[in-house]
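User: Fold this, then the next.

Assistant: Folding the first:
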Amino acid sequence: MSFETIRLEQDARGVATVTLARPEKHNAMNATMIAELTATAEALAADGSVRAVVLTGEGRSFCAGGDLGWMRAQAEQDRTGKMNEAKALAGMLGLWNALPKPVIGRVHGAAYGGGIGLIAICDVVIAEEDTRFALTETRLGLIPATIGPFVVRRMGEAFARQVFFTARSFDAAFLMRAGLVARICDPEGMNLAVEEEVQAVLQCAPGAVSAAKELCRALAGADPANSATLTANALADCWETQETQEGIAAFFAKEPPSWRQSS
């Protein structure tokens, strides 16, 4: 397959590496990337030769969240259009979350907004020690609705309440306490850490690995993908408020909204 925003490679062992490849945009997601990640998840799920997947980002950041152009385009759509965009993102995350192969996240630099959603669909996340994370949606008058079911399911409500609405940045140590990050490494140790996780998978029976992952998902309760309509409505409700419209307009104008107080 040919892609514009990602790369897909596979080695002789059956280890596929999916690389977010918009380094000049800090791998921010747009409609094209969401569609390509959707197609990739479908292809990987159907490919019996694939035994493990590494998800990573090119350049200085893992994923900076939503692309500004994509956000501007959403702001100009009607409610149905906004909900369709949200459901496309939720559908992509749902496919990755249900992928019948282990997904190992290699995270570095920064992961914001939707980038944390991508982390939440990984089975094992290895983060570079200086990586910064944030859910900044509320600074714009929005909420982390679409990624919310995936992130809350992985970190739990208690940890989510500490970061979902303050928009403050946090570090890999916080996400390790929350259970979203499995290992923290210095830059020189990242490749070895990823390879150790890959090797652990390759020592196990592929069918059993897939069944065990499905068992984990079943035991955890409701599939977060089933919340797509609820979260799309919640996000659309936000888009329609005067507060959000002011926040988005201020963001693109590089001006503070009236409700932001200086410290």
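Now the next one, as you asked:
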Amino acid sequence: MTDRYGSDVLSGDWRAPKRGRSAPVPAELDLVVEEVDTGFVGAVVRVEKVGGMQVVHLEDRRGKVRAFPLGPGFLIDGSPVELTPPKPADAAALAAARQASARTASGSVAVADQKARVALGSRIFVEGRHDAELVEKVWGHDLRVEGVVVEMLDGVDDLSAVIRDFSPGPGRRMGILVDHLVPGTKEQRIVEAARAIPEARDHVLIVGHPYVDVWQSVRPEKLGWTKWPVIPRGTSWKHGILAELGWPHRTQADVAHGWKRILGSISNYADLQPELLGRVEELIDFVTAPN
């Protein structure tokens, strides 16, 4: 007999979403999923606990990595899934993959469980404390692995004498980073004179960046600017920059505190201008090259 009113519409799983209910799936290494809210598609590269919650990191085909809360809200081949913590064996694989892909602030592959090497005879010299602190923050791990020490010059006015005192030679190379090395400047004349001395031949590399101060090698976006402001002649450049930022700028203590704030805004190499990045990498390659 035909049911004139049809079947019971409330029978069965009538609340089920159109795509079906989420099925639990372990967040295994290389599992490709789509995050529903953003449409981001990527492979699982690691799972970790952050701020009291578990987070899954996905890497898309361009190498971009984004983090999302572990749980519902993902699709596999269009079907909803709930990502769950990986099984112990998979967790170990994820941990190994995370270690293998770990990067230092400079973008290099991180070397784990290795003590700093005994210092090489070769050295990198920078103009002042702020330069040294910036190099340490971004390249410190790399330099310790290579055994390279960074020393301060306290200016380059007597650069030729510094080179002679260092006595560069085989196994004792000298890499020097100079601020504001642009044509027509005092710095260019000093560097040209230093390059001309016999002691600088073969075992000394002097490079520079175009910025008035190493502060300017930080991308201006990190400080809320589209470009670094021009400070009028006759005004202390660092004090002028701090004034533009609206930060205390009257004393040297204010300058030191301001630099710490700027340095604290830097996470890795991507926060620096390429003109500095290339020069520091060039110096590291030079002082660590086989004799």
